[in-house]
Design goal:
- The chain has one domain.
- About 70% of the residues lie in helices and about 0% in strands.
- The chain has helices at about 1-10, 10-30, 40-65, 70-75, 85-105.
- Helix 3 packs antiparallel against helix 5.
- The longest helix is centred in the middle third of the chain and has 25 residues, at about 40-65.
- It is elongated and about 50 Å long.
- About 5% of the residues are buried.
């Protein structure tokens, strides 16, 4: 399935899927066991990240549709260091690595 997704989606979309697989492999190696259940702390945390991203996209669409946000350039101007040049790329990479580390920690916890 990963090959099928990777064949039609851009690398910016499939890279997080790959990193998620690396995080899972790291957690399985560190804990010494494969997670048999699909309902684990890491799966729940990942689902929350996906849902949060979806809700943020819907909020952006509503704001754009109601002309509260005129264009994407107006949003980028709010926090320029997130969007411009090398500083934006470095900050984005650090944020992505922080999320991966938080996911790895959450995946190692036991759920009730």
């Amino acid at each position: 399935m990963s090959f099928a997704v990777g064949s039609y989606l851009p690398i910016a979309t499939t890279a997080p899927i790959f990193v998620g697989g690396l995080v899972r492999a790291f957690v399985e190696k560190k804990t010494g066991k494969k997670e048999e259940s699909e309902v684990g702390a890491g799966t729940l945390y990942s689902s929350g990240l996906i849902a949060g991203g979806s809700l943020a996209g819907i909020l952006y669409a509503v704001l754009f549709g109601r002309n509260i946000i005129q264009d994407a350039e107006g949003v980028q101007g709010l926090v320029p260091f997130l969007h411009e040049g090398a500083s934006g790329m470095v900050f984005g990479a650090l944020l992505f690595l922080a999320l991966a580390a938080i996911l790895a920690r959450a995946a190692q916890r036991k759920i009730m």
